[in-house]
Structure prediction request, 635 residues.
Amino acid sequence: MSLQQIPHIILVLSGKGGVGKSSVTTQLALTLSLQGHSVGILDVDLTGPSIPRFLGVESAKITQSAGGLLPVTVHEAKPAQPTVPTSSDNPSTTPSSNISYARLSAISLGLVLSSRSTAVIWRGPKKTAMVRQFLTSTVWPSDTEYLLIDTPPGTSDEHISLLETLLKETAATPAQLSGAVVVTTPQAVAISDVKKELDFCRKTGLRVLGVVENMAGFVCPHCSECTNVFSKGGGEIMAREAVVPFLGSVPIDPAFVALIEEGKRPVYPKGTVVGGTEAQEAEGNGEDAGTRDDGLLVEKYTSCSIYPLFEGMVNSILKDIEERDRNGGT
Amino acid sequence: MGPDPDIPYITERLSSIKHKILVLSGKGGVGKSTLSVLLSHAFASSSRPAHPISTPNGNGNGHTSPSSIPLTVGLLDADITGPSIPKMLSLEQEPVHVTSTGWSPLYLTDTLCAISIQNMLPSNNPDTAIIWRGAKKTGLLKQFLRDVEWGDLDMLVVDTPPGTSDEHLALCTFMRDAGIDGAVLVSTPQEVALLDVRRQVDFCRKAGIPIIGIVENMSGFVCPNCTGESQIFRPTTGGARKLAKDEGIAFLGAVPLDPRIGMACDFGEDFLEAFPESKAGVALRGVVREVGKRIGLDVVDDDAE
Prediction:
């Protein structure tokens, strides 16, 4: 299935580097998948692709078929199962056994390179050609509902080519291009760059689905005290000034980093409060420490303290898209 | 395609600058601009001996001068689409002056000047997006190097955007004849960042830029509540120290995450001047000393007094 047939395309943008575009893209994709939507991720950060690392598919390679490039499958769909305990695989001990999710696939330049430390030293025209090729000749799984596009920092070649190609390809059905999620961190230095990105969206007519304030505070794993390492609240003020929706603040969660880097299922000390909501208990599945780290990224992600925050964001994005679809794409 | 006819002009212009360093990182948001600003501040507030032991082309000649001469530093912001330097130096509102002989850099103090595209945007709308393709960015960088009247400087620090693309190639090409002392690489401890820094090391090798060393930024965080130390960005693969060892490059130091550094940058203040004795301040001064030593910059050691 080609780009024209994907119902919803969402861009993840930020003027500033290192604010967590890839992290937000990954978590939006996992959340969408857990809500039963089949997702594809396209990583157009050509000189610093991180998506393969986030999804734990660094050793995978994309393949070329007769129809075009085939993305890597991160996980297949797993339909909801009736909760009938079967004696053989003892579902009560694996907390994720009753979780259902839809397929997630991804494509990135990092999945083409022969070595993970090879520098891709490309000038604009070559990057443009690669972005076009990824957009126009990738064969997405036929059930793909959402395409998330992770971008490099800035407002340059990749972004111009991306928008040009997307606008051309979706000219017949402009509602396909749902809009952009803009990621920032709370500091003034990041905000001033991200304001430029909002200006970019305005100039290119790209809808802003909302602003995510990432790295808003760090919850100390020793005492569960939240420290605002990069200050706080800047993202919300910026969203208000620019009159775009504010999707929420996401704290730094070391357990999420450990999940990505080491595949550890997140556990938290007692009394950890994230986003003003409930504390995630550590001991709920404490007995089966041996099997706790087994399972797919998407299954383990449900134990992450910031997953409920992303659920909220995805719900408001989906509502926004739905409303727009109902109003005929305006 | 022959060599760029502007290169001799650039080389001529840069010949009055003794040391030129690039601050690089494949990854965004690891603290390139912060480190560039801190290095610039630190060098601009130090001095060199008035009579260096053997620098024949030193220009401290002839004057009946004091025992040390302040160092002069220029800071070039090569991040065209996401410039941060003016904000960090409180120079956001200053416009660049164009004269018949070139562009005048913006002076923060007598010894520290800077240039950035931010200062060339219309002052009524500083949030204008700069939506430029590579060729245009390359063109502006050429102008920064060819047309800015830096004057006599002890050091030029070039802050770069993330990645390995047009800007980096442009800097390399344009500055090759003038000579680059080397690159300071910045990384955070987690593998996602190191992955991009490895690509940057590969870039430096391919482009023939010497690597001065690597700095690990945001290395550990001390909770102000319980003083328990934790790793926000966990070095699961050994961090920058291991990368330095594997790649055979120097490790310049680890700077802990201190929320006050970010705040100092947001308000355009000099963190090192405000908190010289903080843990991060001490670590940063160590990095500055290491960089100075490795490029052969003769600095009067204030710490010795």
